[in-house]
Amino acid sequence: MRKQIGQSIVGFIILFPIVFLLILSFGKQWFYPHILPNLWQTSQWESLFSPSFQLTKSLGLSLLLSISVGLVSTVTAFYFSKKIAYSYNKTTWLSLAYVPYLLSPIIFAVLIHFYFLKTGLSGSLLGVIIAQFLICFPFGIIICSTFWTAQIQSLENLSSTLGGSSTQTLKRVLLPLAKSTLLLCFFQCFLISWFEYGLTHFIGAGKVKTLTVSVFSYVNEANPFLAALAGFLLILPSVLLLLANKKLIFKTSNKRPDYE
């Protein structure tokens, strides 16, 4: 009974902000002492289907940015994590992967901003993608490095012994086995990019208006209804990915294949 009550309380704490943002996104006027908005409208949601609406552009830009960063980080991290896992200095290289997380994103942005100004990447989408990649890539290395075990190396050697090329080994052996790890890495990198504000705002110089940047802009403009809509759109994909992420984590931890 206590466990059920505890689970209900935790569920309420998690769901209440999401539901409240959804309700508030339909508001038009909200004065004290009303608990909820006293006037309602659907114009914010209707405008969301217009390509010219700024929030729609921000949503599309955030999806493009996060998917790009997630894909590039996952592919490169998978490749380089193999090199690190099979190297003599594995511990040293993995330790270096934690270095970017010793600093806050905004301090990291200040340190690298000079080079982005010199190359003309400051204030551009490409510059933000590169900056976020520098944050996500080390995290991808940390995740993918757990895949390269002694059993995986034995399978690679077995495939080569049986006459399989490196390409065939990658396509028919490694990628099917690494599917859960790759998806987990992509989801994590996607979420890091999706919620990143300080680095995006600083390197983007306010020109790359992602969904997180829009949320803070609407809050500063004292527009709670558009801020609620932007906040709800910001949370919704992440909740879906977190649920998928949770399933992958349990799948990879409970269903470890035995190659011995």
TrEMBL record:
Keywords: Cell inner membrane, Cell membrane, Membrane, Transmembrane, Transmembrane helix, Transport. Its main location: membrane. The keyword Transmembrane helix applies. The keyword Metal-binding does not apply. InterPro entries: MetI-like, MetI-like_sf. One of its GO terms (cellular component) is plasma membrane. Pfam families: BPD_transp_1 (PF00528). It is found in: Cell inner membrane; Cell membrane. GO terms for biological process: transmembrane transport. Residues 55-244 form the ABC transmembrane type-1 domain. It is a multi-pass membrane protein. This is Polyamine, sulfate and/or molybdate uptake ABC-type transporter, permease component PotC-like protein. It comes from Psychroflexus gondwanensis ACAM 44.
